[in-house]
Specification:
The protein contains three helices and two strands. The protein has about 130 residues and is mostly helical. A two-stranded antiparallel ribbon has the order 1-2. It is flat and about 60 Å long.
């Protein structure tokens, strides 16, 4: 059986969504001009090309941040219930930390944190190539 509070919450969510869509539609300018179709960031008109080559280290650091940020969230929750989790929770958490430590060591081995250095490209010999 659905509770009254859930029904009120569901109806309020639907009404709020419809209201936001309706207000957005009413306030939207109807005439399409050249400046309306131009992308902008915080009211600043963009200049130059958007074809920028990002260094792969940027993405490796971003992925590392997400991984270890999630680790911090899980460990915070575990620290709250550490007494109730007992030894079973301790071993599970130790296994979780071991997997993340393995991932960190792998990233270090791959050179993910060598920010200012050029990573040497490994050449692989292809036996099927026509070069002799």
């Amino acid at each position: 059986m659905l509770s009254t509070s859930f029904i009120v919450y569901f109806i309020a969510t639907i009404l709020l969504t419809i209201t936001m869509l309706l207000v957005s539609h009413l306030l939207n300018p109807k005439v399409a001009t050249r400046t309306n179709n131009e992308p902008f960031e915080s009211g600043i008109v963009g200049q130059g090309s958007t074809d920028i080559r990002w260094n792969i280290n940027y993405f490796l650091v971003a992925i590392s941040f997400v991984i270890f940020d999630i680790e911090a969230v899980f460990l915070y929750v575990w620290s709250i219930v550490v007494m109730e989790a007992g030894w079973h929770g301790f071993f599970i958490t130790s296994f979780f930390i071991f997997i993340l430590l393995t991932a960190l060591l792998y990233e270090i081995k791959q050179g993910a944190f060598l920010w200012g250095e050029k990573i040497p490209v490994k050449t692989v010999h292809n036996p099927l190539s026509r070069e002799a």
